[in-house]
């Protein structure tokens, strides 16, 4: 079986990534059923695809968000080794305005997203998961 191990900083395995079909068969075995049809009682969870389904973020950005408990915009800034003051100067705004942009509920305007994406070397969608 093809598997990818994700290890911690000490090299100890923490997670395993396996193909979905292998995972699904394991779930069927755990549920003590032999086929998909026997799993009919499983709850279907509806979903709708949207334009953000294919937006990906580098692992480093997600790690910064989780470890430092910061917003997506702040994670990009930290990842690029910039201070809020550095970003403020590049945008021509105040440091407090950058702080507001980095609040979790911030929805930067399109022009601001364009500038931030250029500063951080990413796409507009990766800045705020908005297009």
Secondary structure: number of strands: 2
> Into which percentage range does the β-strand content fall?
5-15%
Question: What spatial order of strands do you see in the largest sheet?
Answer: 1-2
> What order do the SSEs take from the amino end to the carboxyl end, as H and E?
EEHHHHHHH
Poorly predicted spans? none
Question: Residue share in helices?
Answer: 40-55%
Radius of gyration from the CA trace?
21 Å
**Structural class by sheet pairing and helices:** mainly alpha
Distance between the termini: 39 Å
Mean pLDDT: 85
So how many helices? 7
Shape: elongated
Give the biggest beta sheet: 2 strands, antiparallel
What is the gist of this entry?
By secondary structure, the protein is mostly helical. The chain has helices at residues 20-30, 59-68, 72-79, 84-91, 95-101, 110-120, 124-128; strands spanning 4-7, 13-17.
What does this protein look like?
This protein has 131 residues and is mainly alpha-helical. The protein is 46% helix and 7% strand. It contains seven helices and two strands. The protein has helices at 20-30, 59-68, 72-79, 84-91, 95-101, 110-120, 124-128, and strands spanning 4-7, 13-17. It has a two-stranded antiparallel ribbon with strand order 1-2. A hairpin with a 5-residue loop joins strand 1 and strand 2. Helix 2 crosses helix 3 and helix 4 packs across helix 5. The radius of gyration is 21 Å and the shape is elongated. It starts with a strand and ends with a helix.
């Amino acid at each position: 079986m093809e598997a990818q191990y994700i290890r911690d900083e000490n090299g100890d395995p923490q997670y395993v990534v396996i193909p979905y079909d292998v995972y699904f068969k394991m779930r069927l075995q755990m549920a003590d059923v032999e086929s998909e049809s026997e799993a009919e009682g499983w709850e279907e969870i509806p979903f709708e695809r949207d334009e953000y389904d294919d937006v990906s973020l580098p692992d480093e950005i997600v790690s910064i968000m989780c470890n430092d408990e910061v917003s997506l915009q702040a994670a990009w800034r930290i990842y690029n080794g910039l201070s809020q003051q550095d970003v403020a100067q590049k945008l021509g705004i105040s440091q407090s305005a950058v702080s507001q942009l980095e609040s979790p509920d911030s929805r930067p305007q399109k022009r601001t997203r364009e500038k931030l994406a250029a500063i951080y070397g990413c796409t507009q969608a990766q800045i705020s998961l908005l297009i």
